[in-house]
From TrEMBL:
Residues 67-263 form the BD-FAE-like domain. Pfam families: BD-FAE (PF20434). InterPro entries: AB_hydrolase_fold (IPR029058), BD-FAE-like_dom (IPR049492), GDXG_lipolytic_enzyme (IPR050300), Lipase_GDXG_HIS_AS (IPR002168). SUPFAM superfamilies: alpha/beta-Hydrolases. Gene3D superfamilies: alpha/beta hydrolase. Keywords: Hydrolase, Signal. The keyword Secreted does not apply. This is Alpha/beta hydrolase fold. It comes from the Bacteria. It comes from Ulvibacter litoralis. GO terms for molecular function: hydrolase activity. Residues 1-22 form the signal peptide. Belongs to the 'GDXG' lipolytic enzyme family.
């Protein structure tokens, strides 16, 4: 068959169109493969789900662990951290005794991360409480800061301590929080003044000091108990503090708690002070509701999620 110029032109056009379509299909397929292999951008990340990790180590001692509860949709920019510190006279206790605070805090403050920490308890001839337990809080905070991008949490903290844990929180904020990373402290019946007869007149007071205090760090401490007493260590640089104490407390005299509250007032540090009726740590159900309500308001005021 003879091809006219017109037919040749038509064939050339058809060939060009077919080749173009084939290249377009290859381009679309290649683009799809490339896009699927390309790292996702921040805009394509799925929202983070709530999760938790138990017994995260922050030191070499088996007691140096914490549990962390991470909320959904958390981020380094906004997810601030509540750290819970247990009691037990500095020689006993475990983070498990503070687990009842977790559901309440998760319900009232669903956008905060929560950390429930253990620390190395004092044992005669083996380990001292002071300053080691203060330093354990520091090491927990350093661990959280180091892992902030992995956990997707901020580096702003609130400390919530019960009994000995309340004391540790007060002392840490007063003496060791040099970078103002702690934004508020909650002390629930935490001791405030070791230089009080309820302690100094105990028959085992000297033995207690030997167990609790590393006297290489605090020499002659019995003559200078103010070094370990929050009432003598607070300053205008302290964080806002919320305090809960008991009127009939045989271990932490109410007068010592009032002295600390008055010192905060004199220094201009925001302070909330609530007195319940019972003995040390004996909080009734209606009182616990009041504690939780006031503590939640304090968290919203001084460690808010923006």
């Amino acid at each position: 068959m003879k091809l006219t110029y017109k037919k040749i032109a038509i064939l050339l056009c058809a060939t060009f169109v077919l080749n173009s379509c084939a290249k377009d299909e290859e381009f679309v397929e290649e683009t799809a493969i490339t896009a699927s292999a390309r790292p996702a951008t921040a805009a394509t990340f799925a929202p983070l789900e709530a999760t938790s990790f138990a017994d995260v180590p922050y030191g070499i001692d088996p007691k140096q662990t914490y549990d962390i509860y991470l909320p959904s949709n958390r981020s380094v920019a906004k997810t601030k951290v509540l750290i819970i510190i247990h009691g037990g006279s500095w020689m006993n206790g475990d983070k498990a005794t503070m687990e009842h605070y977790i559901p309440y805090l998760q319900e009232k403050h669903p956008d905060h991360a929560i950390v429930n920490m253990n620390y190395v308890t004092a044992q005669y001839g083996v380990s001292h409480a002071f300053p080691n337990q203060f330093l354990d809080i520091r090491d927990v905070i350093n661990s959280l800061k180091y892992n902030s991008f992995d956990f997707n949490i901020s580096t702003e903290f609130g400390l919530i301590g019960g009994s000995a844990g309340g004391y540790l929180a007060l002392m840490y904020d007063s003496v060791f929080d040099t970078e103002d990373e702690v934004k508020f402290v909650c002390s629930i019946v935490g001791p405030t003044n070791f230089d009080h007869p309820v302690y100094t007149e105990r028959p085992d007071f000297q033995l207690l000091m030997q167990i609790l205090v590393d006297q290489d760090v605090y020499p002659n401490i019995e003559d200078n108990l103010g070094l370990l007493s929050p009432v003598s260590q607070v300053s205008e640089n302290n964080s806002p503090t919320i305090m809960f104490y008991n009127r009939a407390d045989s271990k932490v005299p109410l007068s010592t708690a009032k002295d600390l509250k008055n010192t905060f007032n004199e220094l201009g540090v925001p302070v909330s002070f609530t007195v319940f009726k019972g003995d040390h740590g004996a909080i009734q159900d209606n009182e616990r509701v009041e504690l939780e309500t006031k503590l939640s308001g304090f968290i919203n005021d001084f460690l808010p999620i923006q």
